[in-house]
Specification:
Number of helices: 11
Pfam family, one: TetR_C_33
Keywords: DNA-binding, Transcription, Transcription regulation
InterPro entries: Homeodomain-like_sf, HTH-type_TetR-like_transc_reg, HTH_TetR, MT1864/Rv1816-like_C, Tet_transcr_reg_TetR-rel_C_sf
Number of strands: 0
CATH superfamily of the largest domain: Tetracycline Repressor, domain 2
Helix content: 55-70%
Protein name: TetR-family transcriptional regulator
GO molecular function: DNA-binding transcription factor activity; transcription cis-regulatory region binding
Order of helices and strands: HHHHHHHHHHH
CATH class of the largest domain: Mainly Alpha
Shape: elongated
Largest sheet: none
Amino acid sequence: MSTAHGARARARIEVTAAIKDEARRQLAAEGAARLSLRAVARELGMVSSALYRYFPSRDDLLTALIIDAYDSLGEAAETAHDAAAGSGPLQRWIAVCEAVRHWALDHPHEYALIYGSPVPGYTAPDTTVPPAARVGLLLFGIVRDAYRGLGLAKPSLPADLRPEAERMAADLAPDLPPETVTALVAAWAQLFGLVGFELFGQFNRVVKDRETFFRHTAGQLAHGVGLVYPQQGSASN
């Protein structure tokens, strides 16, 4: 790579980062629905036509911010999981859940972007799916390890839900029982609902010791997916 080419590449990285930083500032001040490329360009002292060379549309910029947010959340959860790698499934599960909560509290506007109200007129492309799946894959992996090890207690499953449970299992984790996959999908949704309730104020004047409440509830979610830990040699698969 030539010196000039390397300098241009570094400059592009720096300008892209500056555009994203200003866009995140606008998200915090105005919300995603009011994000404007022209406003971002104006704040950075750029002409709009120059900014369009980095992000051709508002949706392209939103997509970049969404992917960055999912990746940042995923990295935080994976780091917490790795730090608890020597612990049992319950401890690893709670570590991931707590990392999600802490990241959300530290990045409320980015959390709102990916788990809040949909942005009018915006449809997320398929490129957002892999980063969005990072936390879910961790939770599935923890349950999968338990299933292959000490075993899981199978949650109950109504007969009328079994066809949908079997479809979800075939799509998401064919190596796990349909009962478990259904409970995992519910736990994944409840985790982010629990975080959202705290972040968006629904727990005001309801829950005071939120950290203790969250940790307890994360444990209940683990129990709900079958992490009950039978004695060694009596695994229920």
